[in-house]
Amino acid sequence: MKKASKKNNNFKVPDTELNSIDAERGKKESQSNFVELLPLEVTSKIFSLLDIRSLCRASRICTSWNCAIRNNDSLWKPHCLTLRAVCQKEIDDDIQSGYTWRVILLRNYQKSRVKHEWLSGRYSNIRSPISLPEQAMCPMDADTWGEILDAELEREAEKLQ
Fold it and tell me: Coiled-coil regions in this chain (predicted)?
């Protein structure tokens, strides 16, 4: 029994060595996280090159990336302004209500995709609600449905000419 415990002691790493290994590992991890190393303007520029999907994925990498992305309204604004081409009234109303650009994007992204598909005629050939794909529907106000109806009526009029 004494021999076995003596062998175990030979393989024990001194506490000071463990601490230096942990410190080195922590140093390498922080060096690989450019968000913590670079100035905010540089990380903002890097993240601004990402599309919406990539930006959302990057925000899930780690806490520091999430904070850098989530709290930087200038990253979300260009994407919202792109959505505004489809959902102008909705985006303008949210801006007036004081929502952040990120929240505006979250509130309107799916609606803008669905609305764009409707306005572009993707669902013009659908004649019953049963034929609609589930992701093609989301709550929309009367003005939006009015725009869609006008677009459908214009398409029908063009077909008749």
Answer: none
